[in-house]
Amino acid sequence: MLLYEQLATQLRTQITQGALRAGERLPSIRQLARSHDVSIATAVQACLQLEREGLAQARPRSGYFVRAAAPLPPEARPSRRRTPGNVSNPMLQDVLDMLARSDLLPLHSATPSPALLPQAALTASLSRCLRHAPTAALDYAPPQGHLALRRQIAQRYAQVGVTVSPDEIVITAGAMEAISIALRTLTQPGDVVLVEAPTYHGILQAVAALKLKVLEVPNLPDRGIDVARLEQLLQQNKVRAAVLVPNFNNPLGSLTDDAAKQALLKSCARHKTVVIEDDIYGELAWSGQRPSPLRRWDKHGSVITCGSFSKILAPGLRVGWMVGGDWTEALLRTKYFSTVGSASLPQLALADYLQRHDLQRHLRQLCRALADNAQRMHQAIAHNWPKSTRACTPQGGLSLWLQLPGVNTQRLFELALREGIGTSPGMLFSSRGDYGDCLRLSCGLPWNDKLDHALRQLGQLASHC
Ligand SMILES: Cc1ncc(COP(=O)(O)O)c(C=O)c1O
């Protein structure tokens, strides 16, 4: 047996016999090398081996941790909407009611807690802009958005090898407005659009409000968008646009890999379907490796990429964008007749923040905290929830998607509300109210006793639903 295998075997025994428990940190690489008298490379290899076996998990800059006993992933359910139909899900109204409440423990809200965001630095940027440039801050912004911010956004794309010109970026009020403007620009009532199943309820609401018909392509917990099915659907139907979240789909947290992304783009280009790419979670890769947006491979001008600062800096500033490519002029016209321009002060403040601070550093800290929260939540669920609970193990984003076979999660949602706990029942993520035994929880809340207690309570409530 090679040296690294011997070390891996010792560590494996400690894990399986309970000496090292789920969530605990393995000794550091240096400690392992010293205590077992092996080289650093051998210690690294041993940890990589445990990672491959699913027993340990690396967290950037923190070391290796023992993984919680991996729960079974939720079943991938084939989408049932094979022919175009209307969005018909009365539960969508309940989200609006819930978002208006500020008294809940916000496990329903896919946003990082304010404690994980650079509030002081952003406040300083807002004050600085008001002090030094009050006229620009209080005047109309250019309809396309302030150039200083568009430049900063273009630079972020350049850092991941995607060439974007500031001239093709249009600033919006969050990604939600970007998606809505793109849909309004591309479609007429009655047109068919493709969405993922499951998908973010805001996308379903936009589609319903514009009286569009939907087709659903499955998104699978372990591999993201089902590209073979997408090709079939495009062959059988005339689909004007596809609203897709390939990087850390909400609610699954699933990732569509690069090969599938390229195949998907080819299909859409062949069938003249414009992709509205919602890349709002692309920066939240817990491994630190940001996955590429679809735009990287777009050779035919078939992608409009939407992004936002909501999930990484401040949802309340309401600043997002779209990268319009050939569609930029048309998108700008649609934006102009609805909002003229976006609020000036938040744009200037974000440009100021991005110029002065290392966003990458903040993202590393944020992603580490999210991965940590998700890990602890998994453990709490494994200990306190019905044994049949299945859970996704996402690699990024803000959501934890659970399946509770036999449990009515709408009932669970209502009971939890009475206890002051917000949750998102699975039905919200389907155009027709499917996923009645699924639940989405946010992993954006830092771990503390209150959260621990709330998860225990939810587990007990789930046993009675
Ligand atoms: C997939 C997805 N797209 C868009 C949005 C809306 O984002 P914004 O606050 O930028 O409008 C959300 C918010 O949860 C989301 O999850």
Automatic annotation (TrEMBL):
Keyword line: DNA-binding, Pyridoxal phosphate, Transcription, Transcription regulation
Pfam families reported for this sequence: Aminotran_1_2, GntR
HTH gntR-type domain boundaries: 1-69
Superkingdom of the organism of origin: Bacteria
InterPro entries: Aminotransferase_I/II_large, HTH_trans_reg/aminotransferase, PyrdxlP-dep_Trfase, PyrdxlP-dep_Trfase_major, PyrdxlP-dep_Trfase_small, Tscrpt_reg_HTH_GntR, WH-like_DNA-bd_sf, WH_DNA-bd_sf
Keyword Transcription regulation: yes
Record flagged with keyword Transcription: yes
Similarity comment: In the C-terminal section; belongs to the class-I pyridoxal-phosphate-dependent aminotransferase family.
Record-given protein name: Transcriptional regulator
